[in-house]
Amino acid sequence: MKKKNNGTSDSSFEKKLFEAADKLHKNMDAAEYKHVVLGLIFLKYISDAFNELYAKLAKTRGADPEDADEYRAENVFYVPKIARWENLQKNAKQPTIGKIIDDAMDRIEKDNASLRGVLPKNYARPALDKHSLGQLIDLIGSIGLGDKENKSKDILGRVYEYFLGQFADAEGKKGGQFYTARCIVQLLVEMLEPYKGRVFDPCCGSGGMFVQSEKFVEAHGGRIGDISVYGQESNQTTWRLCKMNLAIRGIDANIAWNNEGSFLNDAHKDLKADFVLANPPFNDSDWKGEMLREDVRWKYGTPPIGNANFAWVQHFIHHLSPTGMAGFVLANGSMSSNTAGEGEIRKNIIEADLVDCMVALPSQLFYNTMIPVCLWFISRDRKNHKFRNRKGEILFIDARNMGVMIDRRHRELTPEEIGKISGTYHAWRSKNGKYADITGFCKSAKLEEVRKHGHILTPGRYVGTEVQEEDSEAFDEKMKRLTADLADQFKKSHELEAEIKKNLKGIGYEIK
Questions:
Q1: What's the pLDDT tens digit per position in 223-273?
Q2: Are residues 338 and 486 in the same domain?
Q3: CA distance 390 to 397
Q4: Quick one: 211 and 79 in the same domain?
Q5: pLDDT at position 429 over 90
Q6: Is residue 247 part of a domain?
């Protein structure tokens, strides 16, 4: 691993691989090209995993290496002969390579029910240059992905995540529809600590919330099966990315897709989740709110037709279990807006004692928007569930000055900053935590104080400004000095004006 000069770690391996692959896409835009590349990376991964188990079964008496059930028993995808990587590599230079890949994807879906309708199957299209496609196969063929050694290093996970981020950057605004910056997801997960239970994301994009949740569980000694995953996505191509992203990590998830989306067609209507993690579209004005004026989810007020922010907030709350917690990203306007009844909805949610913590984030964390954003943390049971009684209190954290620039346009929170923010929250909510307000950074405010601020949740209103270093100069002395400086400057300006007039008079221009 190579350290970036900003202090965050990044692998030159992933970067070099992406740069090499990126040279091959010629005139194809990132929105199309990402499916070409990520589909092949997925195929190489499952082929590597298959080949390793195939070799083991071939040496085992009584085992049939061509029996698909042998692979299912080991949680490995069965890869039929025409879809194995060696067959693609052998035909990489053939003009029919596009159709060979499409046939391979089709056969894999037929032999693996969980992948049906997921894999890209448009490699044969004329617009895709077959010479470049062959080069891409050779490039991806040079790296090991799915064998035991590379699985343990999470080579595929690293490549996939890096590529998703780079494609999001290349696509600009549209990229944010499928990818949330990793540091934001890590912060949400570290704050909520989803060790065990049902995790739900009703606008799940490419599944980053689920991946980080599973990583968190494993990093803290838990098992990958300790959480169950539920999600929904309205964009079918993004849903496919999500399914592949989870499949390569062995995450068994119930991810639904429909065109209508979570508001009009809630695919998990009866789900009560232990954790909701989400990054919904900001300020969405096209959410079909006019069709949902009397919905059961609007317990705290009917959201305005022109902005879905508080439709999402109430959708999340609706899907929480009696002890559930939610962490989600919203535009900063959600903390203070009084437009079209939003202030009243926010007030009702606060007065229901559901808001646990608010975090103001720095700018430039997202690939798709410059809109400043914040994190909301909602808790259904703030009395004594696992933590101390926090009723009537809200923690405010102002992290706007955090983060390091990783390039001219993008900022990242460092692991240390993520630890500082999440550690502050944990100390505050813990029964034995050593929490203290820090001027300019964090403040535990009583509900009475929030009422005085008109139920506005902007952390800057509560945390105050950072304490500046004490000025050794006494106030009276400073005022005398400043007054003398101003008088001196005034005198000099008059002297300069007189000198200019004198010089102009000397050349025939007299100013009265």
A1: 777 889 999 998 888 888 888 888 877 788 899 999 899 999 999 999 999
A2: no
A3: 16
A4: no
A5: yes
A6: yes
